From TrEMBL:
Domain Translation elongation factor P/YeiP central: 67-122
Keywords: Cytoplasm, Elongation factor, Protein biosynthesis
Gene: efp
InterPro entries: Elong-fact-P_C, NA-bd_OB-fold, Rib_uL2_dom2, Transl_elong_fac_P/YeiP, Transl_elong_KOW-like, Transl_elong_P/YeiP_cen, Transl_elong_P/YeiP_CS, Transl_elongation_fac_P
Listed SUPFAM superfamilies: Nucleic acid-binding proteins, Translation proteins SH3-like domain
Protein name: Elongation factor P
Entry keyword annotation includes Protein biosynthesis: yes
Family label: Belongs to the elongation factor P family.
UniProt-annotated location(s): Cytoplasm
Amino acid sequence: MATTADIRTGLIIKLENSLYSVVEFGQNKTARAAAKVWAKLKGVDNSRSIEHTWNSGDTIYPVRVEKKTYQFLYQDDSGFNFMDNETFEQIALPESMIDAPQFLKEGQEVAVSINTETEQPMSVELPDKIVVKVTYSEPGLKGDTATRTLKPATVETGATVNVPLFVNEGELIRVNTKNGEYIERVKE
């Protein structure tokens, strides 16, 4: 059995019949009272974000999670369809389970977190950085490079990313999927 000493960022625990991921945690010690352990938790199977406090040494219930590599196939009425790269089994997941659905492109590999107790998918995580092609962008004005001015550009997945003025249509760029920001231009 796990205790509050085992809490770490990213751990998924069962609390009040729901699953939560630990976003941040810490410990409060006072001179007279016993130490308390607090954590900011983000719902895995719900959209809630909560804070919870335990007495130091209390029992927690972690959930064993396995990450598997899946390939994104397509999107239809049933949701986003992925295929397991080992067993070729296909699953359809709703958009709410995907951390950055606007950057999914066909054939892209993603990490699917699976609850090993129920064998149910819990979330889909894209790579931190991906390379996408700019499909539409207004041309930048020549000589307007003194400031870090950004312009909107549409990429092949349909998402809009703010890019520097020198990025043109047809170029490949690297994008951070966590915050949707432009990182750099990529040479072909």
